[in-house]
Amino acid sequence: MKKPGKRPKQRLVVFCCENSAAKAAESAAGDPMLKGVEFVRVPCAGRVEIRHILKRIEAGAAVLALACPLDNCKYIHGNRRTLKRVDRVKQVLKDAGIEEGRVRMEFLSSVDPHKLVNVIKEAKRP
Amino acid sequence: MITAERKPFGEIADMVQDAKKLLILGCGSCVTVCMAGGEKEVAMLASAMRLANRKAGRKADIREATIERQCDREWFDKVAEDIEWADAVLSMACGVGAQFCGEAFEGKRVVPALNTKFYGATERQGVWVERCAGCGKCVLADFGGVCPIARCSKSLLNGPCGGSQDGKCEVDPDRLDCGWQLIHDRMKLLGLLDRLEAVQPLKDWSAGGDGGPGRIVREDATL
Ligand code: SF4
Ligand code: SF4
User: Fold this and answer.
1) For residue B142, which ligand has an atom nearest its CA?
2) Best exposed site among A29, B27, B78, B142 by fewest CB in 10 Å?
3) What pLDDT sits at residue A1?
4) Is the sign of the CA dihedral B107, B111, B117, B122 positive or negative?
5) Per-residue pLDDT tens for B124-137?
6) pTM of the full predicted structure?
7) Measured between beta carbons, which residues in chain B are less than 8 angstroms from residue A54?
């Protein structure tokens, strides 16, 4: 019998900009916190569209978008674009009556594997 | 292009709540450019509907499709089967496309997901502005290429009114430039300012919005 209050673990999909978060993830490889996390490597956080995020949420996952620090995007506006899109996704979730925390966004640099592990830990919390 | 904005989610959900099989149909032309009803917006709305249905324990099948245009009959062929299948079609085209879809598939319930706004241009990314009101007899030549009908809040042909202050329109000075200030500035730039001395006669509105639904017939193009 299922223990009361115990919810099935939600999958976490992390979109990683290859200029920052993907490199940090390589450095953090082997950390137990990264176990079971699906990393999606993108050329820039700006490549992540609203529909990409929503498709993953529809499939039952939580989504974390990781971009370079603001004002430090290789493609200038990519991270800000995604930040706005994440806000739009939150609005969609709110409309649908779904918890907005199913999508999050964080900014980190390639030399920040600790932050990467921490934000993933945070995002894994139900 | 024809510009539009998506209706609030709650309004859309109410319109289609009894549809067990729903087709969300985007349009690949104007409303794709103004980011209201193209393929991406179809995907976003479909996800929102599926998530909301699941949350509310409602069962409904939702299909997504986008065609080149909903204001030309031939493009519907590609999605005819999906339209036949659906209890209702949620059209993400402008009001023209949504109506034409209903005409092309008689007896099919077609509801609009967008509020159609105006004929506009892309001022900058994410910002669209009105430039023409489709009056049917263009007078841009007399006003330096700035439309007095679409760009003056009162559509004055012999402006400005007394509410023009510092280049702003009294209707909403924070948001609106005075159309007549723009006309004046452009005519000055073109060296045609003296032409504004002329009193413009009453305009024949029957050429455009007045006089019932419009119709254009090009004899040489008809079959
Ligand atoms: S004068 Fe009429 S047709 Fe010409 S731009 Fe203005 S509203 Fe459009
Ligand atoms: S202030 Fe200018 S734009 Fe506004 S109504 Fe008067 S003339 Fe038209």
Assistant:
1) 1
2) A29
3) 47
4) negative
5) 999 999 999 999 99
6) 0.92
7) 43-44, 47-48, 51
